[in-house]
Amino acid sequence: MKVFYGIQGTGNGHITRGRIMARELYAADVTVTYQFTGRSQDQFFDMEIFNGYQWCEGLTFSVKNGKINPVRTILKSRPIRLFKDIRQLDLSGYDLVICDYEPVTAWAARQQKKKTIGVSHQYAFQYKIPRSGGDPLSEAVMRNFAPVDTGIGLHWYHFDQPILPPIIATPDMPQHTQKNKIVVYLPFENQRQLIELLAQFKGFEFNIYSFCPARTPYHANIHCKPLSLYGFQRDMHDCAGIICNAGFELASESLYLGKKILVKPVHGQMEQASNAAALTELGYGHAMKRVDRTAIEQWLHETKAVRITYPNTARYLVQWIKAGMQPIDQDWCNQVWSDVKVIPVDLH
């Protein structure tokens, strides 16, 4: 079987999910060509598993100080280039197209009438799940950004809908947690202001993953680190909690590892606002509307979290693809969810 797999590269969550799917597809002897869009080609890192991927510009959002800038988003978009990339993508030699919310692949497959399945958190929004910050325009954008024949939605809970658990790596559980160690991933916020705020909490150690500004004053409890898959995973393994935007994949990994979570949604991003609402509604995490000192201080002293035993959803999906991709029903989804358990974690 030959598969073309398009992955949205705007956030690292899509790429993380792609790495996990890539391992399972390779193990199942599926030949895959990968395409990435959504960020500059030189900003991708740790991409060896994709074995010589394709790249084109695609679409992305312009974000500054934690807020989507609609004017800059429009100015940075290049519709003529986008339409050309869609026309030039030849999918004729492939048996199946998989799309992780990547618009060039999705629209090229639609034009060429290729069978396409979508695997992403965004496809869960076709069902009744917690929503926040939405309006008719944002709902229409989400439906039409990367349309597919069969959209397989992923979420932290099924909400009695035919959706699946997150696709995450399933590492060994940490044997030791550093109670005052916090991982921070807020790349869309003003990093200098963020550092100065977190430095005030002297009893905690903050490991900030982002492009930290030059000439930042030294603080003993602040560690600025470059984006790195393995470094980030190492710090995630033994930290007590994570402060991050309300993307889906990172929160999923945190829940699997039993970390406490504080999210700050990107303003103007309906998906992230809805994720924050779902986390708080389920009791899985905390949210703040802006980077707020009081909210952070309260959360830092929180001693409760949950660990969720998510299965290897990627393996279930690859087995489903190899078996002929029968229509997804609630019984099959229930089988995938059957081993999921929510376990309280005491961080004392």
Ordered list of secondary-structure elements with their pairings:
Layout (H helix, E strand, L loop, with lengths): L1 E7 L3 H16 L3 E7 L16 E2 L7 E2 L2 E2 L1 H7 L2 H10 L7 E5 L2 H9 L4 E5 L15 H9 L5 E4 L27 E5 L5 H8 L6 E5 L12 E4 L3 H10 L2 E4 L3 H10 L2 E4 L6 H13 L3 E2 L5 H8 L3 E5 L4 H10 L7 H8 L4 E5 L2
Parallel strand pairs: 1-2, 1-6, 2-3, 6-7, 7-8, 9-10, 9-12, 10-11, 12-13, 13-14
Antiparallel strand pairs: 4-5, 15-16
Helix pairs in contact: 3-4
Can you offer a commentary on this structure?
The protein is α/β, with parallel strands linked by helices and 348 residues long. The protein has 2 domains: 2-167 and 311-343, 3-Layer(aba) Sandwich (Rossmann fold), CATH 3.40.50.2000; 181-308, Rossmann fold, CATH 3.40.50.2000. The chain contains 12 helices and 16 strands. The strands form 4 sheets. The chain has a 6-stranded parallel sheet, sandwiched between helices. β6 (96-100), α4 and β7 (116-120) form a beta-alpha-beta unit. α3 crosses α4. The radius of gyration is 20 Å and the shape is globular. Pfam families: Glyco_trans_1_3.
Structure, briefly:
The radius of gyration is 20 Å and the shape is globular.
Output the keywords.
34% helix, MJ1255-like, alpha/beta, globular, 348 residues, Rossmann fold, six-stranded parallel β-sheet, Glycosyltransferase
Give the total of domains: 2
Report the major sheet.
6 strands, parallel
Quickly give the structural class. Answer: alpha/beta
CATH H-level homologous superfamily name of the largest domain: Glycogen Phosphorylase B
CATH-defined topology of the largest domain: Rossmann fold
Mean pLDDT: 91
**CATH class identity of the largest domain:** Alpha Beta
Q: Terminal Cα separation, in Å?
A: 50 Å
Query: How does the overall form come out from the CA principal axes?
Result: globular
Number of alpha- plus pi-helical segments: 12
CATH architecture label name of the largest domain = 3-Layer(aba) Sandwich
- Tell me the fraction of residues in β-strands, as a range: 15-25%
The H/E string reads EHEEEEHHEHEHEEHEEHEHEHEHEHHE
Record field, number of beta strands: 16
Helix content percent band: 25-40%
Gyration radius, rounded: 20 Å
